[in-house]
Design brief:
With about 160 residues, the protein is mainly α. The protein has a single domain, classed as Rossmann fold. The protein is about 50% helix and about 10% strand. Helix 1 packs across helix 7. The longest helix has 20 residues.
Length: about 160
């Protein structure tokens, strides 16, 4: 989890590949209306996010039912979102990794992105909404993706 530019997709794909697990990008679960709104630089409301979060939750439940391991990249900015996703309370076999970075670093990364609907002006909105988790593995995203994945695997004994 983490705001735009934190490396969720890059790190998630690399981690999933190393573990031979499935990977899913939370962005792929957004309904078209959300993508349209964000592509116009309009931040999503909690109401906008509900169908998105429910879709991700359904995917998590399917993986659990099939006893499949997966890595999912999802902003999950608020505690209430993490509750909807089934991460709190008492998540069964779910490990939360919080990719944390400074505003300047995240903004720099967003400015270098091409072809993504997330707009720079939405970063401030995401950081305003962010409720940092208390019981997640927190990783500094100023490191390389390989270093981040190595740290995640070490800390979670994977």
């Amino acid at each position: 989890m983490g705001p735009a530019g934190s490396g969720k997709t890059t790190v998630g794909k690399l981690l999933a590949a190393q573990l031979s697990w499935e990977f899913a990008d939370g962005d792929d679960f957004h309904p078209p209306a959300n993508i349209e709104k964000m592509s116009r630089g309009i931040p999503l409301t909690d109401e906008d996010r509900l169908p998105w979060l429910r879709s991700i939750r359904e995917a998590i439940l399917q993986w659990q039912a099939q006893e499949k391991n997966a890595v999912i990249a999802c902003s999950a900015l608020k505690r209430s979102y993490r509750v909807l996703l089934g991460i709190y309370p008492n998540a069964k076999n779910i490990k939360l990794v919080y990719l944390k970075g400074s505003y300047d670093l995240l903004l720099e990364r967003l400015q270098s992105r091409k072809g993504h609907y997330m707009k720079e002006q939405m970063l401030a909105s995401q950081l305003a909404d962010l409720e940092e988790p208390e019981d997640a593995l927190m990783i500094d995203v100023s490191k390389s993706p390989e270093e981040i994945v190595s740290e995640i695997r070490k800390e979670l004994s994977m």
